[in-house]
Fold:
Amino acid sequence: MSASTSCRAWPWVLFGRAALAEDAKRPIDGTFSGVTIAINEPSREGVDATFAEALAAGAKALKAPEPVFWGGYSGYFADPDGHVWEVAHNPGSVIGADGSTTFGA
Structure:
């Protein structure tokens, strides 16, 4: 990750396109632009539950949730329209009752 900021409850993170394509197990091929939507969960169990819920609703698994190099836990799926989503738990963040996320807490 090269940059991160927060816009109320919406954190924005820049991740190189090639690195994202490798991490998401999805080549940048015209159907994937190198942009994902991310859902932050307060625990690994939350990641697993959200991932399972997405698959049950018709999403396609791209990368099952697993521990990742930055110390968190994440997985990727494509929704029925082909949009790529990441579901992640970052142990260095706090998700408030209002859904706001504080990184580096």
Summary: The helical segments are 17-24, 44-56. The mean pLDDT is 82.
